[in-house]
Amino acid sequence: MQTEFHVRSQRKYEALDITAQVAAIVREANTAEGLCSVYITHATAAVVINENDDPNVCVDLLDALDRMVPEGIWRHDRVDNNGAAHIKAAILGPGETIPVRAGKLVLGTWQAIMLVDFDGPRDRRVVVTVR
Ligand code: ZN
């Protein structure tokens, strides 16, 4: 089963918890044992699994990447001024694969699926495949 949904970021840098949307799709697929791929079709945003119980974990992640990859010094900035966003998105990657058991995502207590935008606010497309 493959489907997609859209989320809208509100800020330039933002981590959005998309676990509930993905879990609903996995429930509907009703797979006994398999995998769920969560993938975004964008070059300046990423998908990661991390804690969202303390929302500061994601703020810290955004801050850490900001320290590693400063704004405004990249060749691509001459094109559309978002060189840092492309680099950060490439470091985290566009997707995650999560085991599925009995129609549920196999996630740890502190794990959430986060869409991380580095060039918002934008509409972001998330493609979910369950097999
Ligand atoms: Zn660009």
Summarize the structure in short.
The chain is of the alpha+beta class and 131 residues long.
Overall description:
This protein is of the alpha+beta class. It has a single domain, classed as Jelly Rolls, CATH 2.60.120.460. The chain has four helices and eight strands, in the order E-E-H-E-E-H-H-H-E-E-E-E. It has a five-stranded antiparallel β-sheet with strand order 1-8-3-5-6, covered by helices on one side. Strand 5 and strand 6 form a beta hairpin. The longest helix is centred in the middle third of the chain and has 13 residues. It starts with a strand and ends with a strand. Zinc ion binds next to helix 3.
Shape: elongated
The first-level CATH class is given as Mainly Beta
CATH superfamily caption: YjbQ-like
Overall pLDDT level: 97
Strand content: 35-45%
What count of helical segments does DSSP give?
4
User: Widest sheet: strand order?
Assistant: 1-8-3-5-6
Q: What is the total tally of β strands? A: 8
User: What is the radius of gyration computed over CA atoms, rounded to a whole number of angstroms?
Assistant: 15 Å
Q: Approximately how much helix is present in the residues?
A: 25-40%
Distance between the termini: 6 Å
* Low-pLDDT sequence parts: none
The biggest beta sheet, please? 5 strands, antiparallel
> What would you call the structural class?
alpha+beta
Secondary-structure element series = EEHEEHHHEEEE
The fold-level CATH name is Jelly Rolls
Number of domains: 1
List bound small molecules: zinc ion
CATH architecture label = Sandwich
